[in-house]
Amino acid sequence: MGEHPRTLTIDAAMARALELAARGPAHGPNPRVGCVLLGPAPDGRAAPDGASPESLDPHPRRVLAEGYHRGAGTPHAEAAALADARERGVDVAGATAVVTLEPCAHTGRTGPCADALVAAGVAEVVLAVDDPNPVASGGAHRLRAAGVRVVRGLRAAEGEELLRVWLTSVHRGTPYVTLKTATTLDGYVAAEDGTSRWITGPAAREHAHRVRAEVDAILVGTGTLLTDDPALTARVLAHHDAAGDGRLLEHQPLRVVVGLRGIPPSARVRGEGGELVHLLTRDVGEVLGRLAEREVRHVLVEGGPTLATAFLAAGAVDELHAYVAPVLLGSGRRAVDGLGVATIADAHRFRTVEVRRVGDDALVVSRKRTEGRDG
Ligand SMILES: NC(=O)c1ccc[n+]([C@@H]2O[C@H](COP(=O)([O-])OP(=O)(O)OC[C@H]3O[C@@H](n4cnc5c(N)ncnc54)[C@H](OP(=O)(O)O)[C@@H]3O)[C@@H](O)[C@H]2O)c1
Q1: 357 by DSSP, 3-state: which?
Q2: 214 is a catalytic site residue
Q3: pLDDT at 238 (0 to 100)
Q4: What's the pLDDT score for residue 73?
């Protein structure tokens, strides 16, 4: 893996493992995971099995190897770190494996990571987040059964934040839903005649394309498809390019159209880009179920207002990306068409996690309030 830090405490190794994990792709069915292998604990400094993260050895140790998962079809982080150790010719017997997610206990394309760590002679595993995946969980149990000490929960909050989309999707069995809107300051997404290109500026559109490259699927209703004829690809936009064309990014999300009307043969969505899926339904639950079957973990709903309203009314939106442009229309289509809210107490409320200026526009990122966490 090239140069890595020479010594780290276990806590700093977890910070490093999280940093490595984030280098993996945000899209795809698998979680982003990082792993750092540290040299054995000197005598008397090993934490007992099941110890709290606070009681871990605070002294720096030698970094033996590291690795991270580069996406489905490539080695898991632990396997990548063990391969890195082999390449470097370092012995990992007695080592501590610092991993951002509980090592898996299932046989996929390779054997279980828990077994690989045991076979390599690793003595201790420190992990941030337990694996909720029913297929892969049980790694900690397997490690303990083989005599490996396991400490869980180190930097757990950071690990959970990194894996937020994946954890939500795996826990629930349906994709994480991000709803994107591009509105005027007075809340419109299109003028009275249906035109909406462009409300936001090139920087916001460029940003939105980068987000597309991080999700597994983009979704629009047939209304948007027929009015706007979008290509639904992830592209690098040239700012002078008013048509919004540009080079296709490496990852192209699935293009999903929802609704009963047909997709015209000449629709741009049929052109170069991700696979096109037409879901002949108006049922949000069915849409999410069909996407889950395809291992979609993160779907970006791009409108229009009818589809956005249906997702909000179903309580199916986990995150909002609201691009707001300093533009006024005074009339037209609202971003959301009516949620049956008659009184303020029934308002749909989210929690803002980020506000950022993107060119002349603002981006507000808000998330669903989770009970207990947001009060
Ligand atoms: N600024 C923005 O962010 C933005 C984004 C997107 C669109 N727009 C604008 O929005 C306008 C299009 O609005 P729209 O509301 O017609 O678009 P839409 O929400 O994309 O499509 C609505 C259609 O989707 C189908 N559908 C799918 N699921 C449904 C459900 N649960 N309930 C009801 N219908 C469902 C229905 O058509 P079937 O009869 O085929 O089933 C419905 O007529 C355009 O002017 C476009 O420019 C703006």
Answers
A1: strand
A2: no
A3: 66
A4: 87
